[in-house]
UniProtKB/TrEMBL annotation, chain B:
Taxonomic source organism: Streptomyces spongiae
Name of the molecule in the record: Sugar ABC transporter ATP-binding protein
Molecular function GO labels: ATP binding; ATP hydrolysis activity
One Gene Ontology CC term in the entry: plasma membrane
ABC transporter domain location: 16-253, 269-516
Cellular compartment(s): Cell membrane
InterPro entries, alphabetized: AAA+_ATPase, ABC_carbohydrate_import_ATPase, ABC_transporter-like_ATP-bd, ABC_transporter-like_CS, P-loop_NTPase
Alphabetical list of PROSITE patterns matching this protein: ABC_TRANSPORTER_1, ABC_TRANSPORTER_2
Record carries keyword Translocase: yes
Signal peptide range in chain numbering: none
Length: 366, 521
């Protein structure tokens, strides 16, 4: 049986071409530079989409702001401080949530943990006579342990974070109502029985000539710590690796379970901090406080460019995302626009941010 | 059975003609000017090393890739498929390696998925569907109930169902099978070949993509060899194996391999009567057993074996990623017993591992070249938990030129790199930890020839400076050209330790899992 004539012709042509292989070796394959560079610029835009959005919204705020005697009300120090204060609680939580989501998880319990923490700090001070500092530390540790518990259950019983933290939400809310006797706890300051130490009232104060609220300062502080942690520490890299490719992380000697559990701990800690601030600002603790905050926090994270699939995101983006939502609501409020419309606008922005994200990931995979 | 369809005179008109087919993915050329003809009633095998362009060509033929250069004619008429469904309509059916079945549904439901016979337009007519399913299943040899749940069937049976699904629409003129035997046992392969012969006898042309040369002489009529994106030759399937092997690698490829090194006296890895038994045995995970193996400093040892022979599994055991189980015999690294634990424990003992599944277990796809490169070495690069930018720069300065990584920049996304450069990053990730023993699993899979040669030279130069390397590959020519010794595994057992210039046919015979060849040796 002989080789087909055309086939043998092909074969010789191929051998001639194959002889050139060593030259191809010397210069190698040119990297896809042009495409890669274009993509880098594009990625830069995606990475800071929320910052750009925030700038746009700020401009919108100036344009649409009501004026009094020529003064732009939107830009008044009071108003700007109010914007930061209004998003500080969900914003703090969103920073913790960023860690969890980048590591590939989700935490639905944060709003309920906020409620639980507020109630707990109030009872500690009012009924069990703890000092401000100790009460705060205990509540922060409790929040952290709550996160650790969820992380342990999720990692060792192999249940998805969504389910575990959905259960955690119910548990925390149930505990909050039990501890509070299912009612508001009013916090009155003083040295007497059933009173909280007056130092706790600092949390509701404003610094710098009564302009900058404490909660806003705490929010910015948490944001800076979170951004530094995620960007400069070994742990931060581990979080990205675990969320980006868990198996690769494990093969690189990273303790994947530890990393995931710590992200839940961080998230629980931020939720507890928000709960303490909430009680401090309102001067009462409501067991149902923080309902729905988990969704606002997730929205801020997503608008900030963090992928719900894990492996990418920034704290700076999250901060911008939270501020963007707050600023938008503020503009609508200043113009006396119906609160229901605010929800609709928020919805549009979430979808827009997610669509941009999707575009980015499609770019990456080609 | 017709012996061969290659007689020049009685050649029937071609069923499918492909002319000058070319395709590039980004900057990487997968196919260049491929010509191919498929005749009615022939079994046409497509072979080639990984990255030779087999799957790209198959995807074009089956309609999965619509955007390509060149022309295709079916029975003389020029066609261009836009989707596998479009191809199916004109009689070109494909059974992909990832079987297109819904495991939770019954065989009959799978066969008629989306085109179930209806009663009054809305209800699925179950009795008609089962009757028709029975008829279709008969055509692939029968023995499978239409009511069985697909997920409960053995893999070979699932394969038959997938083929039946291609037949359910109507008899195809061309049936494309993508590595159909890759995951089948010897017995199941026999069954599959019976189905293929049955279809061929009815005039169906079969395009058969395979890795295993011995199967081709068994079932094929003609073979087209692809190499580096070109169709090198189309020859009768009866062509001797050695000739096919040299067509596969090409003479000039020899030049890609670095000169052999010299092994030193220190033993890096010693396995004595080593066996590993997972607590929960599974048919997909071939436990390695009865391994007696030494890898010395400066030496590259190749692990040869068929798919499922336990090559990957042995590397996984050593690196601590195997499913939990018990070991017997001894493993020593640098003379001290190795306690098999976790990747971290292995890394601490100076063992590095580069997995075969680059995308699934290697790359952190969302991150940059730098982040991927330094991932395993962050501890050394940081002080009290803070990663030091200066040390990262030093690591890049050390790594990028040495590994010859070509990227738009150190901050370029890892996925913007070619497969070969991605692989170099993964090897670099482990090298930053300065291992004494390097385990490589399919290090050149999906890598272009230039990068392959660079990887061969890189690993050889590392070996020259004292590294011991154990490399598993499904490409025998690669191992023969690159390694100092070949260790053959068969069904998890080590059966031979050979010099690299051993006759490939003998190595393959040793690796084959038939008892007859074992007795021949």
């Amino acid at each position: 049986m002989s080789t087909h004539p055309t086939d043998s012709g092909m074969a010789t042509a191929e051998f001639a071409a194959a002889a050139e292989a060593p030259t191809a070796l010397d210069d190698g394959k040119p990297p896809a530079t042009a495409g890669a560079r274009k993509w880098l610029q594009f990625r830069f835009l995606i990475r800071f989409q929320s910052l750009l959005g925030l700038v746009l919204v700020l401009f919108g705020g100036i344009i649409f702001s009501p004026r009094r005697n020529g003064e732009i009300l939107f830009l008044s120090a009071d108003n700007l401080a109010n914007i930061v204060r209004s998003v500080s609680e969900t914003g703090i939580i969103a920073v913790g949530m960023t860690f969890v989501i980048i590591a590939g998880g989700i935490d639905l319990s944060v709003g309920a943990v906020l409620g639980l923490s507020g109630v707990l700090v109030a009872r500690l001070m009012i009924d069990w006579n703890y000092g401000t500092a100790l009460a705060i530390v205990i509540v922060l540790i409790a929040g952290l342990l709550f996160g650790v518990l969820q992380g342990l259950v999720s990692n060792y019983m192999r249940i998805q974070a969504f389910i575990v933290t959905l259960a955690g939400l119910q548990l925390a809310r149930g505990l909050a109502r039990t501890i509070s006797g299912d009612k508001f706890i009013n916090i009155s300051y003083g040295d007497g029985a059933k009173q909280a130490p007056s130092s706790f009232s600092v949390l509701g104060d404003r610094f710098f000539g009564g302009v900058l609220p404490v909660s806003a300062l705490v929010f910015l502080g948490v944001g800076i710590i979170g951004a530094v942690m995620l960007n400069t520490t070994r742990f931060g890299r581990h979080v990205f690796a675990v969320g980006g490719n868990e198996r690769a992380a494990r093969l690189s000697g990273i303790n994947v379970r530890y990393v995931k559990i710590v992200t839940f701990a961080i998230c629980g800690l931020t939720a507890a901090l928000s709960g303490i601030l909430d009680a401090g600002q309102l001067a009462f603790a409501n067991p149902d406080s923080g309902t729905g905050y988990e969704l606002t926090a997730i929205a801020a994270v997503v608008i900030g460019g963090t992928s719900l699939f894990g492996g990418e995101g920034t704290v700076v983006g999250t901060l911008a995302g939270a501020l963007l939502l707050g600023t938008l609501n503020n503009i609508l409020q200043l113009n006396n626009i119906n609160a229901n419309l605010q929800l609709i606008v928020t919805a549009t922005i979430i979808v827009l941010a997610a669509a941009l994200q999707h575009l980015a990931s499609r770019r990456r995979s080609t | 059975m017709e012996p061969n369809g290659a007689a020049p005179n009685g050649t029937p008109p071609p069923l499918l003609e492909m002319q000058g087919i070319g395709k590039a993915f980004g900057g990487v050329r997968a196919l260049r000017g491929v010509d191919l003809t498929i005749r009615p009633g022939e079994v046409h095998a497509l072979i080639g090393e990984n990255g030779a362009g087999k799957s790209t060509l198959m995807n074009i033929m089956s309609g999965a890739i619509a955007d390509y250069e060149g022309k295709m004619r079916l029975s003389g008429l020029e066609i261009r498929f836009s989707s596998p469904q479009g191809a199916l309509k004109v009689g070109v059916a494909t059974v992909f390696q990832e079987l297109d079945l819904v495991p939770g549904l019954s065989v009959a439901h799978n066969l008629f998925l989306g085109q179930e016979p209806r009663r009054s337009g809305i209800f699925v007519d179950n009795s008609t569907m089962h009757r028709r399913a029975e008829a279709v299943l008969q055509r692939v040899g029968g023995g499978i109930s239409p009511r069985s749940i697909v997920g409960n069937l053995r893999l070979g049976q699932q394969q038959a169902v997938a083929i039946a699904k291609a037949l359910a629409v109507g008899e195809p003129r061309i049936l494309i099978l993508d590595e159909p035997t890759a995951a089948l046992s010897t017995h199941e392969v026999e069954r599959l070949f019976e189905i293929i012969r049955l279809l061929r006898s009815r005039g169906v042309a079969i395009v058969f993509i395979s890795h295993r040369l011995e199967e081709i002489s068994q079932i094929g009529d003609r073979v087209t060899v692809l190499r580096d994106g070109r169709a090198v030759a189309t020859v009768p399937a009866s062509t001797p194996q050695e000739q096919l092997v040299s067509l596969l690698i090409g003479e000039s490829l020899r030049a890609l391999f670095p000169p052999a090194g010299t092994a030193r006296s220190e033993d890096r890895l010693t396995l004595e009567n080593f066996s590993y038994r997972p607590r929960r045995p599974s048919p997909e995970w071939q436990a390695p057993h009865d391994i007696n193996l030494t890898v010395r400093a400066g030496e590259i040892v190749g692990l040869v074996g068929l798919l499922g022979a336990g090559r990957t599994e042995l590397l996984q055991v050593l690196y601590g990623t195997a499913p939990p189980g018990l070991q017997s015999g001894s493993v020593k690294v640098d003379g001290r017993p190795l306690r098999i634990g976790s990747p971290l424990a292995a890394l601490r003992r100076g063992i590095g591992f580069v997995p075969d599944d680059r995308r699934g277990s290697g790359l952190v796809t969302t991150r940059s070249v730098t982040e991927n490169l330094i991932l395993a070495d962050l501890k050394r690069l940081s002080t009290v938990g803070v990663v030091r930018a200066g040390r990262v720069r030093d690591a890049l300065r050390w790594g990028l030129p040495r590994l010859k990584i070509k990227a738009a920049g150190a901050d370029a996304p890892i996925l913007s790199l070619s497969g070969g450069n991605q692989q170099k990053v993964l090897i670099g990730r482990i090298l930053l930890r300065q291992p004494d023993l390097l385990l490589l699993d399919e290090p050149t899979r999906g890598v272009d020839i230039g990068a392959k040669a660079e990887i061969y030279h890189l690993v050889r130069s590392l070996a020259a400076s004292g590294l011991a390397v154990l490399v598993a590959s499904s490409e025998l020519p690669e191992l023969a050209g690159w390694c100092d010794r070949l260790v053959v595994l068969r069904q998890g057992r080590m059966v031979a330790d050979l010099p690299p210039d051993t006759d490939p046919a003998r190595v393959l015979a040793l690796a084959a899992d038939t008892n007859t060849t074992q007795e021949q040796q």
